[in-house]
Amino acid sequence: MDWFAAEDYDLARQVIQRGIGATYLIAFLSTAAQFRVLLGERGLLPAPDFIAATSWRTAPTLFRWRYSDRLLLVVAWTGAVLAASAILGLPQLGPPWVPLLVYLVLWALYLSIVNVGQTFYGFGWESLLLEAGFVVAFLGSDATAPPIAILLFLRWLVFRLEFGAGLIKLRGDTAWRDLTAMFYHHETQPMPGPLSWWAHHLPRWFHRLEVVGNHFAQLVIPFLLFAPQPVASIAGIVIVLTQLWLVVTGNFAWLNAITIVLAFSAIGDSVVHAIIPAVPADLGVPQSAPLWFTILVVVVIALLVVLSYWPARNLLARRQLMNASFNPLHLVNAYGAFGTITRQRYEIVIEGTDVEEPDESTTWLEYEFKGKPGDVKRMPRQFAPYHLRLDWLMWFLPLGMRRERWFIVLLMRLLTADAATLKLLRLDPFDGRRPRWLRAQLYVYRYSTFAERRETGAWWVREPSGSFVPPVTLSTG
């Protein structure tokens, strides 16, 4: 049916399908590397305990049949292989039912992981990947043109992602309204990147301009995604450019990368050709799809439109929810980020000693995490789009000033020098030996000034702010 086909979005589909495949690959590789330590049979928050305490209705997952760390790896590596095939474009070479099946399997496998992932998988970009992956399953194959209805729904997804984030900022913190939010953001964001120090030291007028640009990109541009071409393409390109700035100044897992990918749903092939003449304006894809596929897309879009009621209502609500799923399938969610800006950066530093009884003269040795700040002379590294889940939760921990259960278990694992747990860290000061005592200290971190950086070589300056967990040993009750 030619009326159902998007004639100018063949390149967009290639970018979206392969980009979502790449995101799934990163997500499954992250799971294979981290899940067993965080959530496995002997994890910090064991998934089997969670499964036993919940129902299929509230948390559907393949692991209700049986959970084991070995089965988890089978699921993760199966997903990684299928995702890699999507990146190569192999399913897309067949009829429409082939990529449909592959992406739905990817969605089901990752849904099974997220629904037992608890706080370690409680990030908005997990739901974003699930929703995007489900919708992209209905983009068709190279044998047919992409359905316009699916592309429009992906634009609705980008709209909710951007406009929701813009509204939550205006509603949540005066710093976004008085244009001072970026005075703090680059320094206090969860995981700074290599260029974050430099971004923080840009002039204050530039930081105010960043906030104005953010409001324009998130509160105005999303409406233009539904305008005729080339306006929609221009809106998509603006979103891509603003997301690239976030990529180079932070470490937000795959949030920015997947937003860039989804923004291509608004960017027409002819516009790309006008900007980059080497890209063909017409890829010569047939403009009709099988009747069964068209009917299926219509049914799915109708379902998604019905499910859109809850996130649409949330956008209009005075108490807007941020990163909320309204159903256990994680379809048609509410999104948002940085509704509040922290003014000071608190870091929890885990320290150990092997003395019999520590006192005020005891020398404590620090454990180092891979991504979160610790050693003041270590330049922040780039990890996104990979997701360091433990490091992220370590940023959230001092904000609530609560000793979460998973953190106490982490300390116990370090006291036993658990090899699997130590692999999640960058530095074990005891080289695999068991410390006798551990403690967690709270510090306030700030970026060094240019003068301090030249004098000391340090990227950070920190001041003690008290004890988070007093000294503990394995015999502590």
Quickly list its features.
477 residues; alpha+beta; two-stranded antiparallel sheet; 6 strands; 8% strand
Question: How would you describe the overall organization of this protein?
Answer:
The longest helix is centred in the first third of the chain and has 30 residues, at 10-39. The chain has 477 residues and is α+β, with helices and mostly antiparallel strands. The protein is globular and about 75 Å long. Helices cover 50% and strands 8% of the residues. Helix 4 (97-114) runs antiparallel to helix 5. It has helices at 10-39, 47-53, 69-88, 97-114, 124-136, 148-172, 174-177, 185-188, 196-200, 204-219, 221-224, 231-249, 255-263, 269-275, 291-307, 309-316, 389-400, 405-415, 419-422, 450-456, and strands at 345-353, 365-366, 368-369, 425-427, 437-447, 460-472. The strands form two sheets. It has a four-stranded antiparallel beta sheet with strand order 2-1-5-6. The termini are far apart. It folds into two domains: 2-316, no CATH class; 345-472, no CATH class. It has 20 helices and six strands.
The number of helices is 20
Mean pLDDT, to the nearest integer, reads: 94
Q: Strand fraction band? A: 5-15%
Report the strand count: 6
* Sheet with the most strands: spatial strand order: 2-1-5-6
Largest sheet features = 4 strands, antiparallel
Tertiary shape: globular
Nearest-angstrom radius of gyration?
A: 24 Å
> End-to-end distance, in Å?
70 Å
Q: How many domains comprise the coordinates?
A: 2
